[in-house]
Design brief:
- By secondary structure, this protein is mostly helical.
- The protein has two domains: 130 residues, Serine Threonine Protein Phosphatase 5, Tetratricopeptide repeat; 47 residues, no CATH class.
- It is built from nine helices and four strands.
- The strands form two sheets. A two-stranded antiparallel sheet has the order 1-2.
- A hairpin with a 2-residue loop joins β3 and β4.
- The termini are far apart.
């Protein structure tokens, strides 16, 4: 993967995903790190901490994130993710009480919903999520209509319209033996050509000339002799 120093965090994360945490840690120590901005440096540090945890170095992962920017009073673009990563590594190291406190800090700093800190807090405390945290749950059509009472009449009207359409389709099938689906038509009864005279199809003689309705029927073998 090409790119400048700004891609170091992405490259390290890929190495970690490929099962090469040592390589991810090496990237976090490369000379190019000095060219990174603050946000990229912190993101790379988060990935490197995860790589250490992959290696079983749980305490080292926690210590690696104890940087000046790990201040619960700060509100920087990277604060929520840094607090969350620190809490996650504390939890992996068995420090549940400290982890809970930092998940709270992450939730307070996460104004853009970048993390699921609220859910992690609920898991650790056993407390239910607040109503605001349920906004991303998608209900089915009927549940969504009945959840707040709105849309119920529209749903019923749609159901009635669908029933009328189904009845119309049944009538059409009874009339002409043809049924239609979504862009697909099926003939359910054979359509036979009408005969208007002996040896004719739709008024046309078998030799291609127009048939004479008053002409006598051709004789058969039974009339002879």
């Amino acid at each position: 993967m090409g790119g400048g120093p700004g891609h170091l965090a992405v490259m390290a994360d890929i190495e970690r995903a490929l099962g090469r945490p040592e390589r991810a840690i090496e990237l976090s120590r490369s000379p190019e790190v000095g060219q990174l901005g603050k946000a990229e440096t912190i993101e790379l540090g988060i990935v490197a901490a995860g790589a250490r945890r992959d290696l079983g170095e749980l305490d080292a992962a926690v210590v690696s994130l104890q940087i000046p920017e790990l201040d619960p009073q700060r509100r920087e673009p990277w604060s929520a993710r840094l607090f969350y990563a620190y809490a996650d590594n504390l939890l992996a190291a068995g420090r549940e009480s400290d982890a809970l406190q930092w998940f709270v800090h992450a939730a307070n700093a996460d104004v853009d919903g970048e993390t699921d800190a609220d859910r992690r807090i609920a898991e650790l405390t056993g407390e239910p999520l607040a109503d605001d945290d349920l906004d991303d749950i998608v209900f089915g059509m009927e549940e969504a209509a009945s959840a707040d009472g709105s849309g119920l009449e529209e749903s019923r009207a749609d159901d009635a319209e669908d029933d009328d359409d189904a009845e119309d389709d049944d009538d059409a099938e009874d009339d002409d033996g043809v049924t239609g689906g979504a862009g697909e038509w099926v003939v359910t009864e054979p359509i036979r050509p009408a005969r208007t005279g002996p040896g004719t199809v739709d008024g046309t003689a078998s030799d291609g000339t127009a048939a004479d309705p008053g002409a006598p029927a051709p004789s058969t073998g039974e009339d002879r002799g």
